[in-house]
Write a structure and sequence with these properties.
With about 80 residues, the protein is α+β, with helices and mostly antiparallel strands. Helix content is about 35%, strand content about 30%. The protein has one helix and four strands; from the N terminus they run ββββα.
Length: about 80
Amino acid sequence: MSKQCQICGKTYQKGNLVPRGIGNRVTRRTISRNSANLRTKRFTIDGRTVKLLLCSSCLKRIKKDQADIDKILKESENIDNKE
């Protein structure tokens, strides 16, 4: 399995480590790779358990969306009970 988010496709970021020598001259460059913050999460979809590899930002968005959906459902139940 590749190190990639299965929702947004986020992977690593590439950059340069640039040490400055005497008199602030650039002596060399080393390529560095910063990997994405990936987490394995299990979800139950239609009675089946599915494992997904998600970045932390997608996981955060899923939690927020779920909280918003729960809030809307709770408000609609309160409106139905008042009527």
